[in-house]
Amino acid sequence: MITLYGANASPFVRKVMAVLNIKEIEYKHIPSMPFSGDKELAKVSPLEKVPALVDGDLNIADSKVICRYLESAYPEAPVYPTDVKDRARADWLEEYGGTALAEAAAGIFFNRFMVPNVFKRPVDEEVVDDLINNKLPPLLDYVESQVPADGFIFGDLTVADLALASPFVNARYAQYTIDAAKWPRMSGLFERVTAHSAVAPLLEAEAAAFGG
Amino acid sequence: MITLYGANASPFVRKVMAVLNIKEIEYKHIPSMPFSGDKELAKVSPLEKVPALVDGDLNIADSKVICRYLESAYPEAPVYPTDVKDRARADWLEEYGGTALAEAAAGIFFNRFMVPNVFKRPVDEEVVDDLINNKLPPLLDYVESQVPADGFIFGDLTVADLALASPFVNARYAQYTIDAAKWPRMSGLFERVTAHSAVAPLLEAEAAAFGG
User: Would the ipTM clear 0.85, i.e. be above it?
Assistant: First the structure.
């Protein structure tokens, strides 16, 4: 039985949970918080990041590494395209979604939601404004050039769609919505990903946890 | 013909060049500097990071994405293990080498070599000491638990070995050497990787460029 470690409001944990749903893999979930001094997490995730996954004698961390492993070990219901160049494009979009885009979008969430609600400190509106008005727009411009007007990027839902959309679930908890007038394709992709049958139940469970 | 963008003293570009050597793939090399306002680089690498690679109509950035693509498109002379769990472990070690370990080891290089020689500013010895004495030792302790006393991690040289060793080539330019008394396995692995026929010629070319 697979064990997945990591709080489900992490954009990266959410991505892995969606992949587990798509592949209909049963797993045990331990909602560890990263960087919280959780000794159980430190044992399975040397950098104390989430997600981490244990499958028998295998212990890995990092959502990209985990998704790739799940694809190889549980190949039914693929979550990456099979064409070699499409697969490389999907890997690149996954990387893009998990680095610059996640930093900006999850940064909005961190500064506007976590800081006041969890850390009980005042929101620095200057930081939030900079993320929304300076950091995020050029990233969204690039994403807009990479995603289709309809459907998913490679036909069926893949990790590329999940990686681009997941950070904006967090941003939405902080009242940030992708402007559909400026970025209609990415705004539409976000709606389609979050409505997908592998994703929507995850978001309902999260909203319940957030008292939403 | 493949075109590879990125200064060859980058730990990530070096890793990709070693993979291209192992696979005996011919390529054109453009030694772009990251974050330097290089417009040619920005066209192929949206985040202006290196390495970036163009192969026909495919354009990808990030060394992990590139190495994975090269493995799929040019499968001869594999650079990842084939067993599914070993492959996942290799992916994880590649991630570890490219994040926390690269930040610390390349941080020594940046602060002790680039700052005085390229940016012509004084070295902040406090920052360098913190990297060497606080940040790096626990990372090396973990790596030491993951690498063998002889040979490479998965038998033949793979991306996992390259990703763990490459940042320490940079640290060596800043007079940092892995202490063989404390970390004999990683110290030995570093020696074996840098002596490998796919890597040693790269280091000779770098040393010539650095006037070494």
Answer: yes
